[in-house]
Design goal:
The chain is an alpha+beta fold and about 170 residues long. The protein has 6 helices and 5 strands, in the order ααααββββαβα. Strand 3 and strand 4 form a beta hairpin. It is extended.
Length: about 170
């Protein structure tokens, strides 16, 4: 129950941020912007532009063009409501209102991305004092090979070794 209440609170807060920005800059409050914002904050984790479009179309019955999605996400990035990640070979987005900094493990073989909680890194960054700079958050990318790909590579090596022994 608390999770639903928290999500509702976050949704209202991000809509207020968008409202204030649009009013202060004399921009229109279009239904597309609010539908996209709701969809972004209903999705868990990282998503692509295509996945967001599919979510809007299927769940919200609110199809929008790719250009509208792209332009709206750029606005949300300006407002710090969304962060863009350029992972190996793909661009993904993530809701970031609560500013929870975290690390990503990225497999260089299959491209799988996993979020990792690292309290030691967070503590270290929080204690950093940077000259003439206010920290708002961080994202750390750790590249390597996931256990699934490691197992596949090991199997392939073992199979090659078996073939060499037979020859």
């Amino acid at each position: 129950m608390k999770t639903m209440e928290k999500k509702e609170g976050v949704r209202k807060a991000v809509e207020r941020i968008l409202d204030n920005y649009l009013e202060m800059n004399n921009h229109r409050k279009t239904p597309e912007r609010y539908a996209i914002l709701r969809a972004v904050y209903s999705m868990d984790g990282h998503f692509t532009l295509e996945e967001l479009g599919a979510e809007l179309n299927e769940t919200y019955k609110f199809p929008v063009s790719r250009a509208t999605l792209y332009n709206t996400l750029n606005l949300f990035m300006e407002l710090r409501l969304v962060i863009r990640h350029r992972f190996q070979g793909s661009t993904k987005y993530e809701a970031c209102y609560e500013g929870e900094s975290h690390c990503h493990q990225i497999c260089t073989v299959c491209g799988k991305v996993t979020e990792v909680k690292t309290p030691e890194v967070t503590e270290s960054i929080n204690q950093m004092h940077l000259k003439r700079f206010r920290k708002d958050g961080y994202t750390l990318y750790i590249y390597g090979i996931c256990s699934t790909c490691q197992a596949t590579i090991t199997r392939q090596k073992n199979n090659k070794n078996q073939i060499k022994k037979i020859e």
